[in-house]
Amino acid sequence: MKNSYDQVPYLSLPFKKSHPQRLATIAKMLGMAPAEIKHCSVLELGCAAGGNLIPIAEQMPESQFFGIDFSKVQIAEGQETIKKLGLKNIILSEEDVLHFDSQGKKFDYIIAHGVYSWVPTQVQNKILELCRRCLTPQGIAYISYNIYPGWHVRGMIRDLMLFRSKGKDLTTDGLKLGKEALQLLARAVPKNELHGQILRREQSLLQEQDDYYIFHEYLEDCNTPLYFHQFVERAEAQKLQYLGESDFGVTDIETFPEEVRVMLNSTASNRLELEQYMDFLQNKSFRQTLLCHEDVQLDPKKVLSRLGKLSARALLRPTQSPVDLSSRDPVQFKGTKATTTTVDPLMKAAFLLLAESWPAAIPVRDLLAKAQSALAKLGSSPDEIQVNEASRFLQPLLRCFATEQIELFTGSQEFAVSVPEKPRITELLRLQLERQERACNLRHEVVRLDEFQSTLLVLCDGTRDYSSLLRILIDMALNQKITIRKDGVVLRERQPIQEELGRHLKKCLQSLTEKALFLME
Asked: Which of 286, 349, 274, 281 is nearest to 318 (CA)?
């Protein structure tokens, strides 16, 4: 198993929902008092080359980070990155989870993404034991794992791929043969049969994945999904309790029709049973579960009352313009992952405020006050505005968080929210651009960049303003180091190049700012 990760390294990327800020936010919503993320300690089990941990360490220099992985190749790669960045607050070590000794050190946050389902039972038990032993009293553990019932079908696909590739080198011929077998089966089963529809859906999803992901997800020696309730039972055996999900929408019962919600609430005797029934109904295949010590007092019923202590950020654009705040006609707001429709003038005003402020965040209390003020200017009475404040404002806000239309978080801004006078990127991003790796922004996301954006970002070292950047880019275009086109025609002369670059550069800088790629000045 160790050799497989050295032979086929798992692409080391940031996982936004494992970020300590995300974990702290959800913990606070559910009644915990987690460590302040700017001064915390983080342990990652199975850190690969540090693609998840290193960006956080660079972003939070006063916190301490420790990552372990059993892949010598990936740890060496991560250590080289840390050395080049000059980071002093992070250590990556080649270690087996079974033999890891924390030497009595406690951690505020423990992350195990993409590990639990892919290791033997004794390692799974060790992961939970480490969480119990190494978490601080208000510490939070994040563990992702494959679950049933969704993995029953995927398990059959895994069996098919392993059977077809039996006796072959799984990292080369075996992977190729396994993928071909799935394609053949998906085509062979009649289109009108449910089995065929399921196979074609799964085959279509796999086509979008890289080979390293398919290999480690479907062809590894270990891949042992389990039911959610079984995972919780294992955690409880280690004196850990279920806190919630980093993917907050997994626990959102409001996604079901009313009659289904009534049935679920009458059938389930507690929160855990309710979520297990929801997994069955939604055919869930993956969870990102948060755990804490069993003696921590949680109060999930008061989530709404705690939202006022958080901040909100969202890019929700109305599909029609202008938006009439005095009307109760429905208006649809489109986000990056979903849409929401509201007739409530208060929510319309709040969504417009968030869109106007993007990518800046607004404290939830201020957002409510500003939305109320916008309505008051239209003649709404204070009494009318304040009626059922929680249900009119906080509940829809929580729903939008569950459907990933709105970000809720604790803490302050860590990136520029308007184009800086002299834009500057992180040293990690500069290194990623140099290596032509996937770029990580300051919201802990992978972002796509075109050739011009990458070229521009390399120039953004904090010493150059707009005019300086424009001059350099003009010279690069004249020397044919970059290509500038207008209406499909390559420009060669200084004046048209300057005019076209002038227009494009401002838009590009704004776009890169909205992608959270520039540091605060």
From this structure: 349
- Per-residue DSSP letter, 224: -
Helix (H) or strand (E) holding 267: helix 258-267
Whether the Cβ atoms of residue 333 and residue 318 lie closer than 8 Å to each other:
yes
Distance from C-alpha of 33 to C-alpha of 315, rounded to nearest angstrom: 29
Burial 386-397 (b: 16+ CB within 10 A, else e): eeeeeebbbbbb
At residue 4, the pLDDT reads 67
Cross-sheet strand order for the sheet of 64-69:
90-94, 64-69, 41-45, 107-112, 135-146, 286-293, 240-245
Regions of the chain with pLDDT less than 70: 1-10, 170-172, 379-391
For the record, the structure tokens of 406 come out as: 């709105």
The residues with which 331 forms a beta bridge, in sequence order, are 342
Amino acid found at 93: S
pLDDT of 2 reads: 47
Any idea what DSSP says for residue 300?
Answer: G
Residue written as tokens 């290999």?
A: 215
Structure tokens at 100: 């890891």
pLDDT, tens digit (0-9, with 9 covering 90-100), for 381-405 = 544 445 455 667 898 899 899 989 9
Secondary structure E strands in 246-338: 286-293, 311-313, 317-318, 331-334
CA distances from 404 to 182, 436, 467, 513 (A): 32, 29, 38, 21
Distance, in Å, from the CA atom of 470 to the CA atom of 449, rounded to the nearest integer, reads 19
Q: List Cα–Cα distances, 180 to 10, 160, 209, in angstroms.
A: 22, 10, 15
CA atoms within 13 A on the CB side of 263: 8
323, 345 Cβ separation under 8 angstroms: no
For residue 356, give both structure tokens.
């106007």
- Euclidean distance between the first and final Cα of the chain, in Å? 46
| Alpha carbon distance 465, 453 (integer Å) | 16
Tokens read off for 403: 């459907």
pLDDT at position 380 is: 60
E-assigned strands of 33-79? Answer: 41-45, 64-69
Tokens 């208006």 belong to which residue?
331
70, 100 contact by CB (below 8 A): no
Structure tokens at 252: 């959102």
